[in-house]
Amino acid sequence: MAETALEKDRDLRLEEMVLNMGPQHPSTHGVLRLVLHLDGELIVSVDPQLGYLHRGFEKLAENRTYMQFFSMLSRLDYLAGFFMEWAYVRAIEDLMEIEPPPRAEYLRVIAGELNRIISHHMAIGDYLLNLGAVTPVLWTFRDREDVLDLLELLTGQRMMYNFARVGGVRYDLPDGFEEQCRKFLKRFPAMIDEYEQLITGNEIFLARSLGMGVISPEQALDFGLSGPNLRASGVPVDLRRHNPYSVYPELDFDIPTGLNGDSFDRYKCRIEELRQSVRIIGQALDALPGGPVNMRIPPMLRPPAGESFAAVETGRGEWSNYLVSDGSLRPYRLKLRDSCFVAISTLPKILPGNKMADVVGITGSLDLIMGSVDR
Amino acid sequence: MSWNLSFFEHLIAAVVIAVAVPALSAIVFPFAIRRISGFMSDRLGPNRVGPAGLLQPMADFLKLMLKEDITPNRSDRFLFMLAPIIAFITPVLAVSVIPFSKGFTIANLNVGLVYVVAFGSFTVLGILLAGWASHNKYSLLGGLRSVAQMVSYEVPMILNIIIIAMLVGSLSLNNVVGAQGRVWFIAVQPLAFVVFIIAGMAELNRTPFDLPEAESELVGGYMTEYGGMRWGFFYGLIEWGNAAIWSLTGATLFLGGWRGPFAGSPGWLILKVLVLVFVVIWFFSTFPRLQIDQLMNFAWKVLIPLSLVNLGVTGLLIILLPNSFLPPVAAFSWVSTIALIFLFQPVLRKSLIRKRMRRAAA
User: If both were cysteines, with which of A253, A364, A365, B317 could A130 make a disulfide (CB 3.0 to 4.6 Å apart)?
Assistant: First the structure.
């Protein structure tokens, strides 16, 4: 008997397509490689492969003096390098039991919040670029340039600041910084409104972000997410508030949280945090005390033997380092921990079941930076 | 052409126009999109080569011509080379039935609309071939996406062209322009115009329907493996050539073709084409990209039912009021367009929020 059409159909093999996305891909934020198993456009499984940017930071730290390693720190999360420096000097200050002067703490807060703004600029712009919108990224870069000018004025650098010092910061405020910064703070909220007008209510954006990549609060805590990704799931944990450091307890700011933990909430959290950063910088400028910005410390640091842990809230979540000193010129061990690594570990859980286009959409909404993932 | 040309003169003029339209659009439109979207996103755009950057397209063209011609090792060489050529058929052939001014058409076909639509579908063949022959997974995904998308959006596009053909009572583009002497069809059938614009964006693979070449997902989509002038063929001549054909068709169907104040001339047609291309660029600067399932849903669940209703009601009105059907058709179309504009957003939002709740609960 001749084969029926149905019998023929059985020979029609359907197979999953394995797509190797990255490390060279326009929107994998550096060198993230995702091995995708696709059923047509549907994602069956995701396998993130890391290590393309591994530079051995932790080992390098053991072979350099404390200050020699310092300039490498901002190469970790290169979009917001000051946070790494901040956490590192805090760990050393804890070991040496010194307290930086208050003016230095305020300057650190200002530099840190400026860094948070540029970090979120990049996050929002890139996320929307991943969704195919070209204009927002250029608008955020336009305003990011203003912040970079401020940071250049303050630290002398646009990216690798090298600004924090054990026992303070490197420079005092330069002439004209305060004026320029206040001008920016006055102008910036209108710019944030502009981003929101352009994209937040857009139906296509809503269709691409509402209910996409949902992370429940329990899941978020189980994974160990932090930063805007955690707060978007409705867990209002912010180290600045819940494990206060520096002068944050003296400053008044809100912690924006989401409800659903989807891409939209993560985007919205970042937008709100931009507004909060503006508030914080304004208050820090108002309350800026006089006095020195650093203290006399020996040129060759020799923290006493012991161990210390310091964490700061960066734009992407909790950045922490654990420092073990044996009393010599070099750290005995420096363990760095970042939040993007954790965020990547959620991908195999939240991506399957979505469409191929959401790989870049959801990954973008998590705001990954490979420099700090592959240390 | 009615200028008493000999056959050969006619032939030469036809070839020149048919090649000049896509070629010119490949030069003008990419430059326009770069400058205009640059303006919209608060930057300068290319402004170094020549006065105000006007020679930039020439510089790009020269660069593309001088680049090495690379064929990927495991590609299907013949199809790889054939694909851009096949896709190029559309803009070259479709231009020949467009009336540029009174009595100035390369070929005054009495089935001009059918002809434009038929050759409009050729591009999809070239894109599918390109996606398949490249031997690249991104290209394949891009090619498949573009077939799904272009075939789906072809349907509402044709349904709306049928509406215009019914209003005119003829398939000849000359008659379409002739029928718009008193009022342009955009005023009679705004709903059809809106659907035509949306479906056109999808046909042209432009934002927000630029999935086949979604840069952030598929690298270059079906063009990933193409380089040098082959890529230039796809990007310049085919994409923007098709944009020219689409806007020429749109201007002819809805905006009165070459008609305009004072005297009708090709100048008015070109102006209308530029306006429509500006809309394309405006969309490009404003919208993110849809997802493939949302894209298909939008075509089959929104645009096609809408077009069918519009088609049915228009046809009914034409049958019921054979002598004065324009005012009631216009009234119906305007009311439904306004209803669409004001109802679409709340309905979509509601459904999205419901979906979000479901997902969050799961």
Answer: A364
Q: What is the ipTM of this complex?
A: 0.81
Q: What is the pLDDT of residues A269-318, one digit of tens each?
A: 999 999 999 999 999 988 888 888 888 888 888 888 889 999 998 888 88
Chain A interface, best mutation among B217, B280, B294, B345, by max A CB count within 10 A: B217
Start-end of H helices in B239-325: 241-254, 266-286, 292-297, 304-320
Alpha-carbon distance of A338 to A373, in angstroms, equals 7
Name the stretches of chain B with pLDDT < 50: 1
**B177-217 per-position pLDDT tens digit:** 877 877 888 888 888 888 888 888 888 888 788 777 766 67
- A80: in domain: yes
pLDDT tens digits, one per residue of B121-132 = 788 888 888 888
- As a whole number of angstroms, the distance between CA B331 and CA B285 comes to 33
Could you tell me the two tokens for A62? 């053991």
Q: Which of B284, B296, B356, B357 to mutate to test the interface with A (most CBs of A within 10 A)?
A: B356
pLDDT in tens, A19-61: 888 787 777 677 888 888 888 788 888 988 888 888 888 888 8
The C-alpha atoms of residue B276 and residue B247 are separated, in whole angstroms, by 6
Looking at the 3D structure of chain A, how many domains does it have? 1
CB contact under 8 A, B287 and A208: no
B293 vs A contacts (CB less than 8 Å)? 41, 355
Separation in Å, CA of B106 to nearest CA in chain A: 39
Q: How far is CA A14 from CA A17, A270, A353, in A?
A: 9, 41, 17
The domain ranges of chain B are: 7-361
CA dihedral A165, A167, A169, A173 (to 10 degrees): -160
* Residues spanned by the domain of A160: 54-373
Tell me how far apart the alpha carbons of residues B305 and A339 are, in angstroms, rounded to a whole number: 48
How many residues belong to chain B?
362
Residue B141: list chain A partners with CB under 8 A.
Answer: 19, 41, 356
Chain A positions in Cβ-Cβ contact with residue B223 (cut-off 8 Å): none
Q: In CATH, what number is assigned to the domain containing residue A356?
A: 1.10.645.10
Cβ atoms of B329 and B183 within 8 Å: the answer is no
In a domain, A4, yes or no: no
Is residue A272 in a domain? yes
**Cα–Cα distance between B320 and B335 in angstroms, integer?**
19
Shortest alpha-carbon distance between residue B43 and chain A (Å):
8
List beta partners, residue A319. A312
On whether residue A15 sits in a domain, the answer given is no
CB half-sphere exposure, B157, CA atoms < 13 A:
24
Cβ <8 Å between A138 and B353: no
